Amino acid sequence: MVDSKHQWKAWLYLAPAIILLLIFTVWPIINTIRMAFLNNYSLQSEIGGATFSIGIQNFTRILRYKEFKRALLTTTLLCVITVPLSTILALIIAVCLNSIKPLSRFFQTIFFLPYVTNSIAIGMVFAAMFNIVGTIANFNTPGVVNNLLMALGFNPIDWINTSSTYTTNMIVMVIYIVWNALPFKILILLGGLQSVNKQYYEAAKIDGTSRFRTFTRITVPLLSPMIAYVVITGFIGGFKEYSSIVGVFGDSMGPASDKGRLNTIVGFIYDALPNLQQGRASAAALILFVIIFAVTMVNLYVGKKRTHY
After folding, report:
1. Average pLDDT, the chain
2. The CATH number of the domain where 157 resides is what?
3. Does any domain span residue 152?
4. 249: in domain
5. Which range marks the domain in which residue 302 is found?
6. Residue closest to 178 by CA, chosen among 254, 238, 98, 261
7. 56 partner at 20 to 30 Å CA-CA among 78, 82, 147, 180?
């Protein structure tokens, strides 16, 4: 504990970090709340001397926008589909990695590689894989996925191009997000598995307990704190999804025809900024915060009843 006579030194050392947090974190949050409750707020108009009345007009207008409702639907679907799927797959892979001894470090490194790779670069790779026609060495050739489909006797599918549909675009993004989310979840769950007392498994083996029952009655309950953690962080990250879609589809976030566009709430916020609609963007950001906060509280409540410490 720092002596009261020398506390000023501690505050002095902390001052640069505190100042940066106040400038780049605290003030933007306060300013976002301010702009959200100023009706039809625009920074350009404010600089020009315009005044704005206080109200909730930004929120009521956003909730009537067809684009916002579609962005909310897309974001919710991505979260509801990818978070449970990636968590289940990560749990299965973590158990398998924990069970094998030869080359275990090698396989752990392989599964962790996507986590340290730029999401935009990975998105470009997925775009090439699912492209209906890609250019390789000046020859037009289908992407890897369509090549596989044709080898199996199926017709190629337009996954992400101008004639693609909302469903095909969603399938591509679900595959990408699940694959991209696995490394972090595997790392957390594998760390939890390696800290489990082996006596539980030895006792189950002596009793002749089946592997499935051991998994459901020992592994899952003992990993419940880590599972709750990856589910909560998965939903938080899912509702903020944006860069992965840009990586695959570009800043248009879908085909030029717009029928398959996968805009999310974060994408909706970014769309409002170039149009000088900072009030609308701020209101959407607060709505997103409320949604994430509510989902997190529900997960914490459910996890409190299901988690074994």
Report:
1. 83
2. 1.10.3720.10
3. yes
4. yes
5. 65-306
6. 238
7. 78
